[in-house]
Amino acid sequence: MKIGFIGLGVMGAPMARHLAKAGHEIVTVLNRSPLPADLAAKVLATASQVAGQSDVVITMLPDTPDVERVLLGPDGVLDGIAPGALVIDMSSISPIATARFAARFREAGAHYLDAPVSGGEVGAKAASLTIMVGGPRQDFERALPLFETLGKNITLIGEANGAGQTCKIANQIIVALNIEAVAEALVFASKAGCDPVQVRTALLGGFAASRVLEVHGERMTTRAFAPGFRIRLHQKDLGLALESARSLGVSLPNTASTQELMNACAAMEGGAEADHSSLVRALEMLSGHTLTNLKGTN
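^ thats the sequence. predicted structure below, dont judge the formating
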C-alpha cells in the first residue's frame, strides 16, 4: 500500500518506520523534521502531491493549526486527494475542528478517521501505542491492519469523527490530574519532614499506586525533567479540554487549575520544553519548598 505520512517528528518517525518495515511504500513531504536516515521514503514537494500518490494519508502533527494547514491549506492534502482515499489524522487536536476537517474530505469523496494515540515516544518505538479512533466502522476496518502495525490497544470510540479526539482529551485530563495529585502529595510529605523517595515507595504498595506515581513520581524526586512529554504539549491538550468543555457546558474545575499550574511552569526558563512531571516545580514554588531540600536520600 502507498502511505503518505506527514509529520516525521519524535512520534511520527518511528511510526513511519514500522509501516515501511511492514512492506508499505512511504511518501512524505518534509515539514519541520528532516527525513530520518534509516527511513526509506519518497520525498515530494507538497502535501497535495503526497495525497495524489497515496492510498492512505496519515498526519502526525503538533497542534490543530498545523493539521489544518497541511490538510486544507494551499497545496494541502485536500487539493490532491483522490476519491475513495483515506485520511487518518493521528495528531492530538480539537474534536470540533476534526469534525469540520472530516466534512470537507467527505465532500471531496474521500474518507476520514481521527486516531490520536497515547504511549509517547516509547510506545511509538515499541509499536505498542494505544489508538483511539473516531469515524465510520468500515473506514476503521480498512485502517485496522495499519493500526495493528503501530499499536496494541486499538478501540473504535464512536462512528462520529471527533470521538477519538474526545477520548484522547479525556486521557490527558486523567494524566494531568494524576501528575498534579502526585506532586501535591510528595511536596506535602516532604515539607512535613518525610523523605519523598520513601513516601513514594510506600504508596506504590497501596491503593494510591499508579503508573504516574511510579514513573513521574521518580522523575520528581530525581529531578529528571528532560522530556518525555513536554509541558507545552500538555498545556495544549488541556486547552483543548477546556475549549471543548465550554462548548458542551461542562465544568472542569480541576483541569482548569492544573492548566494554570502548567502555565506557571511554562513561564519558567526552559519550562515549556521540560517534561510534564515538572509540574511539581509550580507547587514547590507555592510552598517555598523543593523535594531536594531534605536530609534523606534523593
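The mean pLDDT is 94.
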